Amino acid sequence: MENKMIYGNVEQKETWQFLEEKLTACFAYVKNHDMLHMQPGTYEINGRHFYVNVSEYTTTVRSERFWEAHRKYLDVHVMLQGIETIDLGFVWRMNPGEYEPDKDFLPLDGQATATVTMREGDFLICMPQDAHMTAIMNEQPQKIKKAIFKVQI
């Protein structure tokens, strides 16, 4: 088993042009919508098969955050404003909690195997085997805005 997360920037098409159309549709949506000025909330693109959550929150210390993974959807995080650190780990190396199918939420307990720092335009694609801990501050807490596309698998 291996971690299959993909990290890049929406402006560098050569880093993501090989991806499936379902995933590149996320980047097209970012390009064609003024997402920075969209209100936080859920926006359906293709019903519950493909939608985006626009989120605003303040990053914080790692100890206040939690691990999660998903089984029904891929997460495509796209940073719209601010800087956020995200820890990543292997689901199969972690201790799982009870899966909540109605929320497609699997809580986990474990250790990071990688960390990325997201800046404006950066994206991170998390597959079902990718545990992730979001909203970690970089140098200090800051308010961020990002889009989290949910792509049904």
UniProtKB/TrEMBL annotation:
GO cellular component: cytosol
Highest rank taxon of the organism: Bacteria
Pfam families membership: DUF386
Protein name: YhcH/YjgK/YiaL family protein
Listed NCBIfam families: YhcH/YjgK/YiaL family protein
Native organism: Marvinbryantia formatexigens DSM 14469
Gene3D superfamilies membership: YhcH/YjgK/YiaL (2.60.120.370)
Alphabetical list of InterPro entries matching this protein: NanQ/TabA/YiaL, NanQ/TabA/YiaL_sf
